[in-house]
Amino acid sequence: MEYNWTDRVDSMDTHLAFTARVHLIVHPAVEHRAGGGNDDWPVGEPPVVSQAAVWTRSLVGEATREWDVLHRHAAQHGVNERLSRHLPHTMDDAVVGSVTVALSVDEDDIRAAHELQRARREAQLDELACHQTATTLRFLREECFDNPGSARLFLMLNTNTRLGVFPSAQQADAVVDEVTRWHPDSLWVQVAKTLQAAFGSLTHNQTKELLRVLSAVLRGTGHPEQASDLDDLRSAVERGESEPA
Q1: Residues 63, 20 contacting (CB under 8 angstroms)
Q2: Which structural domain, as residue segments, surrounds residue 25?
């Protein structure tokens, strides 16, 4: 007895499916033929055919969930190969002799699969970029900030355009100077840390007085613009527009 049906079967991606056209051939078991004296099935669909269909659906669905819909031909070969390994399949009163599956994919599912594929590729590129950035930052932290000389040599020799974050060799000196200036052990950074800690414990009037003293020192050492900036900050503190961190 031959039995044909069409099913929507899952792929490896949620909400994307194959359309499976299944051709099933079921033969009466030997005992059934001998007992009945007739090779014909009773009128109507025998229960064993339904059992064979359920068994087939289970195997087909299990196999298609290993494939995405963009690899329809490979999925079809895989499904039929897996089914062939289980044939013939003996049931209570019948034998499943042959199962053939043809897969197709709706255009909407194909478009959605391409969009999903692009999204996955973008996610992989983003992950790679994040990894490269993390590696670069780790190098800057462990090498450049600890040894500006190594930083200059790296910047002069670097030709890896994929990273795209390092300046050219012509800019190496300026970068090294900046790295050196911001080094945690540089004098001005340590002074800034000390002032930051002190500002947190100063009163309102003490803050204004410190700003006044610093302004006077800067003006006396030939830095009138910076002194004016501190005067502006002191005025803002007096007006209550700026508070120490």
Answers
A1: no
A2: 2-105
Report residue 145 as tokens.
């900030």
Q: What is the mean pLDDT of residues 43-57?
A: 78
Whether 42 shows a pLDDT value over 60: the answer reads no
Q: Within a domain: residue 245?
A: no
Give residue for tokens 């930051």: 196
- Residues 210-244 pLDDT 10s: 899 999 999 999 999 999 998 998 888 888 766 65
Question: Rounded distance, CA 182 to CA 152, Å?
Answer: 15
Q: Of 146, 148, 150, 166, give the one whose Cα is nearest residue 158.
A: 166
pTM score: 0.48
88 vs 30, which has greater pLDDT?
88
Q: Is residue 127 part of a domain?
A: yes
Cβ(69)–Cβ(113) under 8 Å?
yes
Phi first, then psi, for residue 19 (nearest 5°) are: -100, 120
Does residue 210 lie in a domain region?
A: yes
Tracing tokens 């005025």 back to the chain, one arrives at 235
pLDDT score, position 175: 65
Residues 202 and 179: their CA atoms lie apart, in Å, by 31
Where do we find the tokens 């004098």?
187
- 3 DSSP β-pair partners: 24
Position 244 in a domain: no
Q: How far apart are CA 101 and CA 83, in angstroms?
A: 9
